[in-house]
Amino acid sequence: MARGKGRGHKGQRRHFTTPEEMKAREELEEKRNAWREGREGSDDEDEDDSEEETTSSSEEDPDKPKKGVEGLIEIENPNRIKKKPPKKVLVDPEAGTSKGGDAPQLSRREREEIEKQKARENYQRLHAAGKTEEARADLARLALIRQQREEAAKKREEDRKRREAVEAEKSALTKAALGKK
Fold first, then answer.
1. pTM (2 decimals)?
2. CA–CA separation, 168 vs 173, rounded Å?
3. Whole-angstrom Cα distance, residue 56 to residue 65?
4. What 3-state DSSP class applies to 19?
């Protein structure tokens, strides 16, 4: 809160800034700014690089709306670490062999990624063939469900036949009863 405004503490007077104090502060700020500009002027190469970075970062997302005062102030945070998207590695079975002597030197991450892809493909192939434990469990569950459905269908068929037989008896009795009258 600015001085001179709001409630003060009990028993204390308000303190107002004099014009001399204000001038002294402004001069001090000007000296600091001049010193900063002088230091930045000695690093011309760094300044050119930073200008290129700010222009390239502003060119990346021109249609992205800026939040808060971001549109007014263009600042590049040097402490911010930009995440690189993970590289997709295509599995090439011939690349791993050293027959030609020109085997590419893969990094640990690339080798791990290739191994993961090969393992995933191998698992999918075995799963489709029904050789994995999960596939066996799925097939056993499906066989059990098929058996239950067949039993339920037989039971429904027997119930339908029994109902038809009962209805046929009733109709025969009613015809016989009507025929005697």
1. 0.33
2. 9
3. 16
4. helix
